[in-house]
Design goal:
Largest sheet: 8 strands, mixed
Radius of gyration: 26 Å
Number of helices: 15
Strand order of the largest sheet: 6-5-4-3-9-8-7-10
Number of strands: 10
Oligomer: single chain
Order of helices and strands: HHHHHHHHHEEHHHEEEEEEEHEHH
Strand content: 5-15%
């Protein structure tokens, strides 16, 4: 449902953007044709250079890009076709995205209002991508140039032009960098330090502005910076993505259980859990499903996109599941009585963390999973950090 709503929102934004092309800025047909003809010569560095600041803050990045095109004056070196001749050089674009930047930035300065900004962060990202695609394909709208339409990849009935390949690269670039930025933003939000959210937002906007100024002076250097940021983001993306899901589940599940009737009721003999450390083939903080099978055994399953789910089955003689309450999180402890403690690869106990989604149905949850329950000692209740990092 979430992906469907996101797709519908993107489709709505795209249709409005395309419909507004003829109205934006009041440009005549002759001016548009001239701009399109010149913009066909936008180089790769001029297109890829501003992707990093736009990924860090989509609305503010496009505002800076439009501001440079409008008010850069003589202090910006010439020859940048994206700044000199594209649709971003328009006052309507600048003021529209400036207002959007303010509206989406103000909620990020407070921990109370930041969840609202986090909720629309993904929509802002997709809106920024759509805006870039409109700029790109409007700038290359004249298809009379055979070089611009040269096929760079063809497989069966699918063919990709150079413009299409660059557009796809821009989408991947923005999504990857923005996902990593979202993780650190979410991590700062759950850190109980006042004004830390405001400091991070100011630092993010400042970095975005600095990167855009570098782009104005040298698109080649900006492209190099963008590639470095992209490589770093790709390196930590899976690690960050797992923790975003983990922290989001721990924080939102209790709220949803109170707001949505039936969400906290265990309808099936399964539980969403996260290993506190590497567990066999399962990475730390990966989202797993712990299930009670019909034959009385248990299984730990990790769904994988485009591949069969990774599943490990355990009999009653192999593990002894134990549910343990906590203050911030709960834990499912799998004891392996037959584990060889002399082997470095074996584990006598595995701790799987889960949220307070079923806190009001604790007894029912234990019965569904066929697990025993134990209350945490009083001394452990005050060790908050252990629950997230045990």
């Amino acid at each position: 449902m979430k992906r469907l709503l996101t797709f519908l929102c993107c489709l709505f934004l795209f249709s409005n953007a395309v419909e507004a092309q003829d109205k934006l800025g009041g440009l005549s047909g002759t001016e548009l044709a001239a701009a399109s003809q010149i913009s066909e010569h936008i180089s790769t560095s001029e297109w890829l250079g501003p992707l990093a600041p736009i990924a860090l803050s989509p609305f503010f990045g496009i505002t800076c890009l439009s501001g440079l095109a409008l008010f850069g004056g003589d202090w910006i070196p010439g020859g940048n076709a994206l700044l000199e001749n594209s649709v971003v050089k328009n006052s309507a674009v600048f003021w529209t995205f400036l207002v959007l930047s303010i509206l989406t930035s103000l909620p990020r300065f407070s921990k109370l209002s930041k969840p609202f900004a986090q909720a629309i962060d993904q929509l802002e990202t997709y809106a920024g991508i759509i805006t870039l695609l409109v700029i790109k394909f409007w700038a290359t709208g004249d298809t009379s140039d055979p070089i611009g339409d040269a096929l760079v990849l063809q497989a069966g009935v699918i063919s990709i032009t150079a413009d299409g390949l660059l557009a796809f690269a821009a989408m991947v670039n923005i999504l990857v960098v923005n996902s990593v930025k979202f993780f650190f933003e979410f991590l700062i939000w759950i850190t109980p330090v006042p004004f830390l959210d405001a400091c991070f937002e100011v630092a993010n906007k400042s970095l975005c502005a600095v990167l855009m100024v570098i782009y104005a002076y040298s698109p080649a250097i900006a492209t190099g910076n963008n590639l470095i940021i992209l490589l770093i983001s790709l390196f930590i993306m899976r690690w960050a993505h797992r923790r975003v899901i983990f922290y989001r589940t721990m924080c939102l599940d209790p709220l949803l259980a109170k707001c949505l009737k039936g969400y906290g009721t265990p309808h099936r003999a399964e539980l969403t859990v996260f290993p506190s450390q590497n567990f066999g083939a399962f990475p730390e903080k990966s989202r797993l499903l712990f299930r009670k099978n019909a034959d009385g055994s248990w299984s730990v399953c990790m769904p994988r996109f485009g591949r069969p789910a990774l599943r490990v089955n355990y009999t009653q003689a192999e593990i002894r599941p134990l549910l343990k309450r906590g203050w911030l999180t709960n834990s499912l402890r799998l004891n392996f009585p037959q584990a060889n403690t002399q082997s470095e690869s074996s584990q006598s106990e595995v701790v799987l963390i889960f949220s307070h989604r079923h806190a009001a149905r604790w007894t029912e949850l234990c019965e569904c999973l066929g697990a025993n329950s134990v209350e945490a000692p009083l001394v452990e209740v005050f060790d908050r950090k252990v629950e997230f990092n045990q």
